[in-house]
Amino acid sequence: MSTKKVFIETYGCQMNFSDSEIVGSIMKSIDYEVTTDINQANVIFLNTCSIRDNAEQKVNRRLRELRSYKKKNPDLKIGLLGCMAERLKEQIFNEEAVDLIVGPDAYRDLPNLLNVAESGQKAANVILSEEETYAEIEPVRLDNNGISAFISIMRGCENFCTYCVVPYTRGKERSRDPQTIITEAKDLFDKGYREITLLGQNVNSYHWNEDSDMNFSRLLEHIALINPLLRVRFATSHPKDISDELLYTIAKHENICKAIHLPVQSGSSDVLKKMNRKYTREWYMNRIEAIKTIIPDCAVSTDIIAGFCDETEENHQDTLSLMKWVGFDYAFMFKYSERPDTVAAKRFDDNVEESVKSRRLDEIIELQKELSAISNKKDVGKFFKVLIEGVSKRSSQKLFGRNSQNKVVVFPNHEFKVGDYVNVKITNCTSATLIGETIE
Ligand code: 5AD
Ligand code: SF4
């Protein structure tokens, strides 16, 4: 008998990619193999995202496409996983293609749910948990270059930023047993991995109750001490609790990458208040000053939302001026998208015109392009240690990797291997990439 196959398509954030690896592992335990060929699949999972309306629309379009796969293969089962499953619950069964609905905390129940689905009934589990961290499950590494891996260290979020659906779809914040995290990291290193990204909605609030000393800085240090050849990254940090202790830990260890993703969302204290971000423009500037003082070579990236409720032209200018002041190296930029049932949807008016939102977003994107170009130009002439990730997409004669600051560096291939560290002198750049020559 041939093994059954599952095809997993992942949308949205890194957390979802990490969850898909847990799902892969749970499916493996019931003898499913993960396939990259959708036509061979007995089961198709879409691991979905609800963060903005267009993320959900994309999945809806995909579900409509998948109807034809079911026509070809009536035994095919389709499962909706992740944030959309949690947000829409049984409602999505009206979409005829879906057989299973599984929220982010219910993946251990997949074997049972599949049994139900195979008997011809629809199956759902969208119960959120206060404890589930999938701590001891060894993820199946998907999409993998054998060098970089994610480790999820906490789940959920209780910050309740007024625009954000995540606290509703991913539930209460909980941290994973540090011992299981350290063991997973050591195991990855032994298997040849050289870069680990610790993931959580808000990694700075990591804490483990059974060992009150174990906070995020200490955990990061434990991982860094596994081996100097193992690089450590993390995402995402909330500006309200990025501590000096954490910054000193980053500065102390060469293998903790000098790159902090610190979503600002807006440069206006009034807008930040309405967003319930719990910090002001001045607080954010103070944190940036601390980063630049304690870790002078640290890159800073951010997330920005254009056109939140009541955002005035002056508020928008505050965002642009803050971006210039910080000089972000990179940014993810979005138009505000109202999410049902959030505080903003219930209490505020989504009153910035679509055309104004678009224009403000364009201005933000334009400015960020300039800032990224300035940041890259500053690196020309500098030397960086680069971890090689693969062959450049543009030329087989070239390799690419990243420096500690998370910038992509392209350089000629002189018989190096993926996973090697090389020293590169930067000789040129585009707004997206650094170009260089390796040196001895
Ligand atoms: N509309 C637009 N962007 C949003 N984000 C979160 N919720 C929304 C929303 N309703 C953005 C924030 C967050 C990133 C992951 O997505 O910038 O940091
Ligand atoms: Fe959403 Fe705010 Fe939590 Fe981030 S910190 S997931 S933006 S509620």
What is this entry, summarized?
Strand 10 (195-199), helix 7 and strand 11 form a beta-alpha-beta unit. The termini are far apart.
Structure description:
Helix content is 35%, strand content 22%. With 440 residues, it is of the alpha/beta class. The chain has three domains: 4-125, Rossmann fold, CATH 3.40.50; 148-378, tm_1862 like domain (pyruvate-formate lyase- activating enzyme, Alpha-Beta Horseshoe), CATH 3.80.30; 383-439, Nucleic acid-binding proteins (OB fold (Dihydrolipoamide Acetyltransferase, E2P), Beta Barrel). Strand 13 (299-306), helix 11 and strand 14 form a beta-alpha-beta unit. The protein is globular and about 65 Å long. Bound molecules: 5'-deoxyadenosine and iron/sulfur cluster. Residues 51-52, 163-164, 263, 265, 303, 305, 334, 336-337, 339 line the site of 5'-deoxyadenosine.
Separation of the first and last Cα atoms: 54 Å
CATH topology of the largest domain: pyruvate-formate lyase- activating enzyme
Beta fraction = 15-25%
| Structural class computed from helices and strand pairing | alpha/beta
What is Rg?
A: 22 Å
* Ligands and ions found: 5'-deoxyadenosine, iron/sulfur cluster
Number of domains: 3
Number of helices: 13
| Overall CATH architecture of the largest domain | Alpha-Beta Horseshoe
Strand order of the largest sheet: 2-1-3-4-5-6
The main β sheet shows up as:
6 strands, parallel
Estimate the global geometry from the Cα principal axes: globular
The CATH class of the largest domain turns out to be Alpha Beta
Overall helicity? 25-40%
In CATH, the homologous superfamily of the largest domain goes by the name: tm_1862 like domain
Strand tally is: 19
* Unreliably modeled segments: none
